[in-house]
Amino acid sequence: MRRGTLIACLLASSSASADSLTDLLGPREIAVGEALRGGATGASAIGLNPAGLGLNRELVFEGGYGYRASDSASIIGVSACDSTSPMPGCFFYNYAGGEPTLDGMTMSRKAHVGGLALSRPITSRVLLGSTIKYFRFDSVVLAGSQATPAMPMETKTSGVNWDLGMTLRLTDFVNVGLTGYNLWGAESPHMSRAIGGGMLATPTPTLRFSFDMRWRLDGAEQAARYGGGMEWFLTSNNGQTGYPIRGGALHDNNTGATYVSGGIGLAGLKWGVDIGARRQVAGGDELTVLASMRFFGPREAAPAME
Q1: How far apart, in whole angstroms, are the C-alpha atoms of residue 6 and residue 95?
Q2: Per-domain residue ranges for the chain?
Q3: Per 3-state DSSP, what percentage of the chain is helix, strand, and coil (rounded to 5)?
Q4: In the structure, how many helices (H) and strands (E) does the chain have?
């Protein structure tokens, strides 16, 4: 199983659905305010910046589950990522399903997203990446309700789309990431075109800070979403076990929503567990909790800059 993802955002409300599938996020990304485009590795790179797959050297299988009580949304994902090869890549699949209630009507919404993410180092400082994904979105009005002109049935859509990403290693301590989402392929209100960018700073090996922004390009309003966070990595006396502590905040100017987030983890040589949560503190009261588990294969030292 892979990390839980935020494709369940599309299950929340009609106003949020057009911005929902741009990011496929797990507990680590959520915990730091969705701000990892400058340093996303493994499964985190799938939804944020595929170029980041080349930042480390490891084979990892990840799976996760998430839940949101407001619409009984279940979120499931699996991935297999290998960055030990000359062209690092990930296979992934994500599912989200829920039953939100809109104006007294119970809806059933389901989303499937699967595909392949690849990265290619151009130099030791410049990495490029791409994600190709197939998506399918289904929505049905339940409980005998009928669609009306005032509230039509939501469109069922499916197709293929592409993301492109780039990571720049400016120094040993600072990375910059830039990603374009859903740039080519099938058009869907659930797969918005967007661009995102961010910076990751690592002042010490155990502490890093990040700040990201993302702009949705479709629709009358070019909505912005920005957040930041930090991760502090504690280690045991023997250095074999780590305990990441994460915190962050996020704001969406389209919906007026503001969130605070946090998470903890346990990382060993062969496996790791992460838990992340975010709570809406303005514009609503949404609470989303995600958890994932990772199993590591061969791991090598990260590539050095020349």
Answers
A1: 10
A2: 6-300
A3: 10, 55, 35
A4: 3, 15
CA Rg, the chain, in Å? Answer: 19
Please, what CATH class does the domain formed by 6-300 belong to? mainly beta
pTM confidence score: 0.85
159: left (phi over 0), alpha (psi -120 to 50) or beta: left
Q: pLDDT per position in the chain (306 positions), as tens?
A: 334 333 434 444 433 333 443 457 899 999 999 999 999 999 999 999 999 999 999 999 999 998 877 777 888 999 999 999 989 999 999 998 877 766 666 667 888 999 999 999 999 999 999 999 999 988 765 444 454 544 455 678 899 999 999 999 999 999 999 999 999 998 887 788 899 999 999 999 999 999 999 998 876 566 899 999 999 999 987 778 999 999 999 999 888 899 999 999 999 999 999 999 999 999 888 888 999 999 999 988 888 877
DSSP string, 45-95: HHHH-GGGGGGSEEEEEEEEEEEEGGGTEEEEEEEEEE-SSSS-EEEEEEE
Rounded to whole angstroms, the Cα distance separating 186 from 222 reads 20
Element spanning 228, H or E: strand 224-235
From 173, 190, 27, select the one nearest 110 (Cα to Cα).
190
Say which residue the tokens 């090869």 belong to: 85
Residue 7's closest CA among 18, 19, 17, 21?
Answer: 21
DSSP 8-state secondary structure symbol assigned to residue 55: G
Q: Is the dihedral of CA 156, 190, 6, 288 positive or negative?
A: negative
Buried b (16+ CB within 10 A) or exposed e, 13-50: beebbbbbbbbbbbbbbbbbbbbbbbbbbbbbbbbbbb
Report how far residue 78's alpha carbon sits from residue 67's, in angstroms, rounded to the nearest whole number: 16
Beta strands in 105-256 (DSSP E): 105-121, 126-141, 157-169, 174-185, 194-204, 207-216, 224-235, 242-252
- Sequential DSSP letters for 95-122: EEEE--EETTEEEEEEEEEEEEEEEEES
